[in-house]
Amino acid sequence: MLTLKTHRILPPKLTSLKQHQPEKNKTVQTPDTGKANAGGKGLSLPAVPAKQLKAANAVIQMEKADIYGSAAFANPAATLATKYPQALIKEEPGSQGIDGDPDVEMIKVLAGEKTRDKFFTFIFERLQQAEADYKKYSEAFTDNSEDEGIQTLMNEANGRVQKIKAIQENSDLYKINDVTSAANWYKANTLALSKAGLSPKLIRIKPASSGAASASAAKTDAHDFHRDAGYLKVTAGGGVSADLNGPSSKGWVRGHSGIDNYAHRFVEHIHVDKDDHENRFEIYNADKSVVDAARAFGNSKKASLHPKSGAGFDAMAAEEGTAGAASLASAIAKATPKPKPTATATTTTTTAVDDSSSSTGGGTTTTDADASESDTDTTG
């Protein structure tokens, strides 16, 4: 039997909360757009990942090792643990709203005063690292302005600096004082957190270490996944095309109403290592024939699947809005601490309940307030 355990990664203790709060009336910097800066440092080229530049002459991977079937979809952590022995398996937030396990654990971190302080420190440390990277690559680019690889790394580091600053200087972050305000802030900033590399990750499988070699392998070999699940559906008629609900009339995968990857639009799926352009793949909650049929349907119905305005567009937007509101309410309910049962006089056996422990998604969640490791890894 496979036991799924979770461990949350949190930053070290905060040294001073005030030093990380935004200065009053300070202009909030927005994420970098990739344009040249005022100093003319040559930031005009698009930020192409160095891996892509190095792999320009590599053999193109024509077909990914996708996995099909409900069993793998239902338990991706176990599937990936088998595929990648001695690797950390982490779950990221997906598109099913903000009431998934990584999201709820992050909301708990933001809602608690001590854990929120740790998150402020974490942001500060990540900003320092990004600034150090930018300085290093800027100096290297000054020495060799013809090196596009170095320019790319410099651009990416600069982008990270601006995106992290935007989170750090978000005044609403410092107004969080309970679960509800934490959930509302998180819902409004999930995309910004993701782009800044600050999204939470929940460790689903932490391999047992039998020695230094396996422990080292676990630290360096990690695989991420996130779910894109849940269907939304509109009522056809009155200018609303039945085609919007897909080939099987189930509807579309929430958050995917506008995309032209019809396998993803109409079939629930899990992204594995999405940022690894050479090795990423998907786990589909269906047989391959169903996925192929979704692609064929989409390609033949393009004209009706992408309304820019009108009844169909409004109907889809309304469904997404309703689902978002329901997800917010669900997340608040999940993140709200449950009252502890009152002990009765007839109780003869006492079980200690640790305030820092909870149960998450079938696994054990343990938080050590004084350690750098606990369940939610906000390392992005």
From TrEMBL:
Feature: compositional bias, Acidic residues: 370-380
Comp. bias regions, Low complexity: 331-369
Biased composition (Basic residues): 1-10
Region feature (Disordered): 1-43, 331-380
Lineage: superkingdom: Bacteria
Protein name in UniProt: Uncharacterized protein
Species for this entry: Sediminibacterium ginsengisoli
